[in-house]
Amino acid sequence: MPSVTVENYLKQICLEQTRRGGDGLVPMGRLAEAVGVTPGTATTMVKSLAEADLLHYAPRAGVELTPAGRRLAHRVLRRHRLVELFLVEVLHMDWAEVHEEAEELEHTISDKVLDRIDELLGHPTADPHGSPIPRADQPLVHDDSRGLDTAAEHQPLTVVRIVDHDPEFLRFAEAHGLMPGTTLRITERLPHADAVTVEPDGQTPVTLGTAAAARVLVKSAS
Amino acid sequence: MPSVTVENYLKQICLEQTRRGGDGLVPMGRLAEAVGVTPGTATTMVKSLAEADLLHYAPRAGVELTPAGRRLAHRVLRRHRLVELFLVEVLHMDWAEVHEEAEELEHTISDKVLDRIDELLGHPTADPHGSPIPRADQPLVHDDSRGLDTAAEHQPLTVVRIVDHDPEFLRFAEAHGLMPGTTLRITERLPHADAVTVEPDGQTPVTLGTAAAARVLVKSAS
DNA sequence: TTTTTTACTTTGAATAATCAAAATTACCTG
DNA sequence: CAGGTAATTTTGATTATTCAAAGTAAAAAA
Predict the structure, then answer these.
(1) Which of A183, A184, A208, B105 qualifies as a cystine partner to A212, CB 3.0-4.6 A?
(2) Per-residue model confidence as pLDDT tens digits over A54-94
(3) Which chain A residue has its CA at the smallest distance from B98's CA?
(4) How confident is the model at residue A21 (pLDDT cuts 50, 70, 90)?
(5) Are B186 and B154 in contact (CB under 8 A)?
(6) B76-133: per-residue pLDDT in tens?
(7) Which of B49, B106, B44, B97 is nearest to B74 (CA)?
(8) Cβ-count burial of B148 within 10 angstroms (0-12 exposed, 13-18 middle, 19+ buried)?
């Protein structure tokens, strides 16, 4: 079985790869930062992962997962997200802090325990922040969501996902009703101010900077 | 925070120490076997734990925990046992297999999650096998239980604990009603055959060898 | 008491993961 | 294209944990 370290490298590459639309290599700098090691360490590790055929390594260009690597990464992501949901739904923990907890547990939960959790939760398809839960055999469909920074104005939109794990941000989002499932409208876009104002159903309007807005994914409310 | 390895050494010393009645040193051989390393490795590790003041090391005699070491060991044991109970009670997992699961989770469950579990279970005092769950501040009272190998005959006895984690044995015990809470009587003791026969309430009598009998702790049913 | 056995410790070496700092390469900029 | 900057790789070392095998001490047997 892969070590915790290996699982973390693969997970971060997978996350980074989807973050940049699935195509192209993940540069070493990004990876090193995501994993929290110095660039030199990442290089060393990546070479041994390439050796094990878990990723392709193009020196000075970057890395991308092989099918085997992606399979492992998805397993980790699945554990992480199921655990998150479990902590919220069953142990009633705070939306904003379950990410950190899951960071540890994702490496030690056995398949048996995970299956129980999956069953108990009714085979959910998304975690508390709206991130999809990969299933054993991989689909992982790309949805048609976009960030609040680029979504259409004045139309009813549904929040599908928050792509940020900072507890501060999550608490802020929660306080303003910006959680998966919320319906809202963009009332104003201020390009020069680098901001958008949104009005969640039954809530006071909020204005977000583009960077924050991009982390709130929405789709048109159907 | 102590590493998983350190936690395991401390846990095993603590278990071994109570197993031998709380007094005297745990010999290195026992420890090495319990932790699953070669004797040389245990010696090295123990020296560094002594350095950190987690145990006292008497070369060629053995080790015993310092108060600091015992505190850490109890924390691990608490996590282990609460997790076991949680797996049985909430996730409805098999009595016989939760030990192995808890062996991993005991090192990664945070205090926050543990507190939720503790609350959800109503601050339990024993795990599914009857082992006491240490509380933050340490008591851990010695009960007056004894093994079936030495308990009084023909009197109503209550099973308080099974001191064995082998799934095979646990399944056997379960099949014969030998679980914490069961009332039974010793109907016959056969010293020469190295065996005892017990009759659990409403079950067929079973005969156990002394070694197995010693792992079933009972107290007189009050 | 001498010998033998058993338990334990030491030694030398390996693996996984890491870092700091030096060396290299690729990319821009003028 | 020359020069500089930023990203990346190399190198040399460190820490934690482990093992196998050789050495040593203490306990048991003779």
Answers:
(1) A208
(2) 999 999 999 999 999 999 999 999 999 999 999 999 999 99
(3) A113
(4) confident
(5) yes
(6) 999 999 999 999 999 999 999 999 999 999 999 999 999 999 999 999 999 999 999 9
(7) B106
(8) buried
Name the DSSP class of A192: G
Residue A95 pLDDT greater than 80, yes or no:
yes
Look up tokens 């205090």; give the residue.
B111
Mean pLDDT of chain B: 94
Question: Tokens at residue A66, please?
Answer: 């092989």
Choose the closest CB to B108 out of A87, A104, A116. A104
**pLDDT tens digits along B138-161:** 666 677 889 999 999 999 999 999
Cβ A173 vs Cβ A216: under 8 Å: yes
Name the interface residues of A facing B (CB cutoff 8 Å): 87, 90-93, 97, 101, 104-105, 107-110, 112-113, 116-117, 120
Q: What are phi and psi of B183, to 5 degrees?
A: -100, 145
CB atoms within 10 A of CB A3: 9
Question: Are residues B7 and B107 in contact, defined by beta-carbon separation less than 8 angstroms?
Answer: yes
Cα–Cα distance measured from residue A5 to residue A1, given in angstroms and rounded to the nearest whole number: 11
Tell me if A215 sits within 8 A of A149, measured CB to CB: no
Contacts of A120 in chain B (CB under 8 A): 91
- Dist. CA B1–CA A34, nearest whole Å: 23
Tokens of B165: 């984690």
Tell me whether strands B157-162 and A195-200 are parallel, antiparallel or unpaired.
unpaired
